[in-house]
Amino acid sequence: PGAGAALRPCSSRVAQDGINKPVIDRIIRVDHAGEYGANRIYAGQMAVLGRSSVGPVIQQMWNQEKNHLKKFSELMVAYRVRPTVLLPFWNIAGFVLGAGSALLGKKAAMACTVAVEESISEHYNNQIRALIEEDPEKYKELLQVIKQFRDEEQEHHDIGLEHDAEATPAYSVLKTAIQLGCKAAIFLSERI
């Protein structure tokens, strides 16, 4: 560069021309929070069941969640989205939910997985519909990410069912309570 020319560092920002910034902010913020919470749930489950027969299954799902969190962390930087202020709460609540369900047994841990992943899959489907209605071409990359993660969350849901989640005592009560918590977490993380 010539004398006096400023060097500009490379940026990982996304061109934001024409995007619906409030919608994208909400989507990325809540998805980052959700993936953060999922990581904490699996961390709690592994703390209790890591050495059990389902430990490797939980670890495999957790590894995918770690990739999801990494990607949404990158998207937060690229789109310049602030995280939810509730992350410290989700840190504790996620771990307690994971460890608490695991303390009830392997089936209850899988029931927790089914409840959470069903809620997240539904949430991702709602986001996919919203982005397609807005402009599928403009949000093509984000749609690909959300669709891939939705499919992986659905796999986790199915793994939970394969590991006898529905055989958990009071399964429907546990599932309903967890899903109500998920809906509240989604609502709050989108906004705060």
UniProtKB/TrEMBL annotation:
Record keywords, A-Z: Iron, Membrane, Metal-binding, Monooxygenase, Oxidoreductase, Ubiquinone biosynthesis
Pfam families, per database record: COQ7
GO molecular function: 3-demethoxyubiquinol 3-hydroxylase activity; metal ion binding
InterPro entries xref list: Ferritin-like, Ferritin-like_SF, Ubq_synth_Coq7
GO biological process, one term: determination of adult lifespan
Pathway annotation from the record: Cofactor biosynthesis; ubiquinone biosynthesis
Domain of life where this protein originates: Eukaryota
Keyword Disulfide bond: no
Entry GO terms, CC: mitochondrial inner membrane; nucleus
Identification of the protein by name: COQ7 protein
Annotated source species: Setophaga kirtlandii
